[in-house]
């Protein structure tokens, strides 16, 4: 389908940035999936890279295509990180965390010299906020944290798995999906959330994108904020 084709085209364009010897951060989600598959093809052709995955799922996908995995005990900086987003705003701030991996994704993106965001064109918005904002919170006192987050002006719901059990992140935390409506000042909201004890991380990625690689399934554009 057209959207999958768009994700694949954006992902494969991002992999063109990867050079022999690089250390790479691998994102989580259906767009990152295509980047991992393309990287696997290039590794099979002899490309030498080392990678850090942003989720256990991504680590499994990378191992399946024989991408060598390392950790932050081996490196403290990455050459490149490639990851998707749920929304990209006009100021290139991002909403991420739809896949529940936002904490590791933000750590990996923060460690990358260049963070490439790969999206299909439906992710582009003027302001963030149409997509519910994921916030990772520790389980202890989550009801108090939930209450305080709603006091900031939203309705927050704890993410559940299909079986109705609470979704648990790779870091053993909960995700609250928050409806703040249109987010006109992402830094202000991010800072207010991070000030709450019990909030681990938010899905607001501000001033982090080195490039936004977008496709509609026909063409690919690369934008540098
Ligand atoms: O969870 C995440 O942050 C993912 O990168 C998500 O934002 C994008 O997922 P998708 O590529 O499956 O749309």
TrEMBL record:
Q: Where in the sequence is the active site?
A: 105
**Biological-process GO terms, alphabetical:** pentose-phosphate shunt, non-oxidative branch
Query: Which InterPro entries is this protein grouped with?
Result: NagB/RpiA_transferase-like, Ribose-5P_isomerase, Ribose5P_isomerase_typA_subgr, Ribose5P_isomerase_type_A
Functional pathway: Carbohydrate degradation; pentose phosphate pathway; D-ribose 5-phosphate from D-ribulose 5-phosphate (non-oxidative stage): step 1/1
Protein's UniProt keywords contain Transmembrane helix: no
Q: Which GO MF terms does the UniProt record name?
A: ribose-5-phosphate isomerase activity
Q: Which UniProt keywords apply?
A: Isomerase
Q: Which residues form a coiled coil?
A: none
What Enzyme Commission number(s) does the record list for this chain?
5.3.1.6
- Does Isomerase appear among the keywords? yes
Q: Specify which residues bind substrate according to the UniProt entry for this protein.
A: 28-31, 83-86, 96-99, 123
Q: Which reaction does it catalyse?
A: aldehydo-D-ribose 5-phosphate = D-ribulose 5-phosphate
Q: Which EC main class describes this enzyme?
A: isomerase
Q: What does this protein do?
A: Catalyzes the reversible conversion of ribose-5-phosphate to ribulose 5-phosphate.
Family recorded in the similarity comment: Belongs to the ribose 5-phosphate isomerase family.
PANTHER family from the UniProt entry = RIBOSE-5-PHOSPHATE ISOMERASE 3, CHLOROPLASTIC-RELATED (PTHR43748)
Q: How does it assemble?
A: Homodimer.
Name of this protein: Ribose-5-phosphate isomerase A
Per the UniProt record, the source organism is Sulfobacillus thermosulfidooxidans (strain DSM 9293 / VKM B-1269 / AT-1)
> Gene symbol?
rpiA
């Amino acid at each position: 389908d057209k959207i999958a084709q768009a994700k694949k085209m954006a992902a494969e364009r991002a992999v063109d940035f990867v050079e022999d010897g690089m250390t790479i951060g691998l994102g989580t989600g259906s767009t990152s999936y295509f980047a991992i598959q393309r990287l696997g093809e290039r590794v099979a052709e002899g490309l030498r890279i080392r990678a850090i995955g942003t989720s256990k799922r991504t680590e499994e996908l990378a191992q399946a295509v024989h991408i060598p995995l390392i950790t932050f005990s081996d490196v403290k900086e990455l050459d490149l990180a490639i990851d998707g987003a749920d929304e990209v705003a006009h100021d290139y701030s991002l909403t991420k965390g739809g896949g529940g991996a936002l904490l590791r994704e933000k750590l990996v993106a923060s460690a990358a010299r260049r963070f490439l965001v790969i999206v299909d064109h439906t992710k582009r918005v003027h302001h963030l906020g149409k997509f519910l904002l994921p916030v990772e919170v520790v389980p202890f006192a989550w009801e108090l944290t939930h209450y305080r987050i709603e006091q900031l002006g939203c309705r927050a719901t704890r993410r559940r798995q299909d079986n109705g059990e609470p979704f648990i992140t790779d870091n053993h935390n909960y995700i609250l999906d928050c409806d703040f409506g249109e987010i006109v000042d992402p830094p202000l909201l991010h800072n207010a959330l991070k000030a709450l004890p019990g909030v681990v991380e938010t899905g607001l990625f501000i001033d982090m994108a080195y490039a936004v690689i977008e496709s509609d399934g026909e063409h690919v554009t690369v934008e540098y904020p």
